[in-house]
Design goal:
Low-confidence stretches: none
Number of strands: 24
Largest sheet: 12 strands, mixed
Strand content: 15-25%
Helix content: 25-40%
Radius of gyration: 23 Å
Shape: globular
Length: about 550
């Protein structure tokens, strides 16, 4: 087979018109707003139509990610196509890519090889403008906040207590910490300021968790932007910003309909990062996928200790959604990396490293089965360099936990390469799980953090920095400490230290900052050196992206 790049494969695809796709899956024209021929928005009122029972929800997650790559999105797309090939009415539900990774080091998030969603270039770049709208709403609130202070500050906002930051959907370390309002009295009140990447904005989380426009406005109004001189929180509602913010998000709240290379419907909407936010696509998109398909396949970001944990403990808790089965994606190469092998030596057979790296896979599986009570299957994203003996070792190890393994070759073969995985998933969906959360609603904030640390990360517990202890006392005094927790930590390790690979033990999770997101409805707990505004690498992917005279894009991956 001739080797083609991801973008070359996507550009040679033959998609069907979006109106034809919508009609095929039972979405009437009245609910569709076209953005060209191959993408559209679906009106929220579609959720109120028809009596079809919801399909089975399949969550795709992964081991702790490595530079070797695991192919989680590729597996998710290929599994959807495989289910369709088996005659199952299937709908895919994914997050939208952020421009930060697209132009940085990770690349896009539309799948890869012959398991992609299209139009790949549109999805990885501006798509339907959702992220621009989210950034605009975020920055409108920032502008209204600073203007309120400039115009006399009737709410008595303490400029030193402002927690609301500006947002930009780009990796730009230069903007992490800035001083704004310089230039004289009429140019604003000078203060320390900064930018987060748009996917880390609370507005992104609000959009993804809101059930409808009324819920969106209510959540926006509860966003805390800072505190007054008496230490009481000041909200977007008090600044009268939530109505205008909602107006900017009027179209962004509607999920986007596209398709895979094999014409399986895909709803792509929202894109918070799982290491610094809750890492799931929107509730409305997932519910639409369940309404459209007998099987809805979705994914959560990074490893199961981040994306899957937040999918369950935040998204499912708030929405009532429940997965019928979980797919845990791994590669032999990534497991060997967790076993201590450098990236340059991953193609060499190494049973000792593989056996050590398997501890990471086993811990994630144990969490899914025993902490969350969910039926699961391991998908091994196969590489040509994997030996049969290595694959057998993975399979035998998983079976000791009562979990089956399916080889996935969807990158090279599309849906055909995922048929074995699809059959395992169909079988799992008929089994009964014992679904539960990692912590109870009535736990204190510290109890919730310790439950996650001990039961999911397998740490000895959490330690709060002096600053975090003060913040906890303030949250408790304000009655805000009962919310679910959203832990921001490195994706590379169960711990908060990215160099502790595999299945580390004997560590504690250090929480250095607690930030209440009252609109989203959770408390972000920042650990380790995690940052909410990434930077570009030494050789960013942007250097390889180009546009020719005919308007064709190259270099995207």
């Amino acid at each position: 087979m001739e080797h083609k790049t991801d973008i070359e494969i996507a550009q040679s695809a033959k998609p069907i018109k979006i109106t034809e796709l919508a009609a095929k899956i039972g979405i009437d024209e009245e609910f569709i707003e076209q953005y060209g021929n191959y993408k559209a928005k679906i009106g929220l009122d579609f959720l109120e139509q028809g009596e079809k029972p919801d399909g089975k929800l399949i969550l795709v997650t992964a081991i702790s990610p490595t530079p070797a790559g695991e192919g989680k999105t590729t597996t998710t797309v290929g599994l959807s196509d495989a289910l369709s090939l088996l005659g199952k009415k299937t709908c895919l539900a994914l997050r939208e890519p952020s421009l930060g990774p697209v132009f940085g080091v990770k690349g896009g998030a539309a799948g890869g090889g012959y398991a992609q969603v299209i139009p790949m270039e549109d999805i990885n770049l501006h798509f339907t403008g959702d992220f621009h709208a989210i950034g605009a709403a975020n920055n409108l609130l920032a502008a209204m906040l600073d203007n309120h202070i400039q115009q006399g500050n009737p709410l008595g906002i303490d400029p030193k207590s402002i927690s609301w930051r500006r947002a930009l959907d780009m990796n730009d370390r230069q903007l992490r910490n800035i001083v704004s309002g310089l230039g004289g009295r009429m140019q604003g009140v000078p203060r320390e300021d900064g930018f987060d990447i748009t996917v880390a904005s609370e507005v992104m989380a609000v959009l993804c968790l809101a059930e409808n426009i009324d819920d969106l406005k209510s959540r926006l109004s509860k966003i805390i932007v800072g505190y007054n001189y008496e230490g009481k929180p000041v909200t977007a509602g008090q600044l009268k910003a939530h109505g205008a913010m909602a107006a900017l998000l009027r179209d962004a709240i509607k999920p986007n309909l596209v398709q895979t290379l094999e014409n399986t419907p895909a709803i792509i909407h929202g894109g918070p990062f799982a290491n610094i936010a809750h890492g799931c696509n929107s509730i409305t998109a997932t519910k639409m996928a369940l309404k459209i398909g007998d099987y809805a396949v979705t994914e959560a970001g990074f490893g199961a200790d981040l994306g899957a944990e937040k999918f369950i403990d935040i998204k499912c808790r708030m929405s009532g959604l429940r997965p019928s089965a979980v797919v845990l994606v791994a590669t032999v190469r990534a497991l060997k990396h967790h076993g201590g092998v450098s990236k340059g030596s991953l193609n060499e057979e190494n049973f000792e490293a593989l056996e050590k790296g398997l501890e990471n896979l086993m811990r994630h599986l144990d969490n899914l089965k025993n902490v969350y009570g969910l039926p699961c299957v391991v998908a091994i994203n196969r590489f040509p360099t994997d030996s049969e003996k290595e694959l057998t070792l993975v399979e035998e190890s998983c079976r000791k936990l009562g979990v089956n393994v399916a080889l996935s070759e969807v990158w090279a073969k599309g849906g055909e390469g995922g048929l074995a995985l699809a059959r395992e998933v169909i079988s799992l969906c008929e089994t009964e799980g014992d679904f539960k959360f990692a912590y109870e609603d009535n736990f204190s904030l510290l109890e919730k953090l310790n439950a996650l640390a001990k039961n999911v990360y397998r740490a000895e517990g959490v330690e709060l920095s002096p600053n975090a202890k003060k913040q906890l006392a303030q949250l408790e005094a304000l009655g805000l400490s009962s919310l679910p927790v959203c832990v921001a930590k490195t994706q590379y390790s169960f711990s908060d230290n990215p160099s502790l690979l595999g299945a580390p033990s004997g560590f504690k999770i250090t929480v250095r900052n607690l930030k209440v997101c009252a609109g989203a409805g959770f408390i972000v707990c920042l650990t380790g050196d995690i940052m909410t505004m990434p930077g570009l690498p030494k050789q960013p992917a942007a250097e390889r992206i180009d546009l020719d005279g005919d308007g064709n894009i190259s270099g995207l991956f």
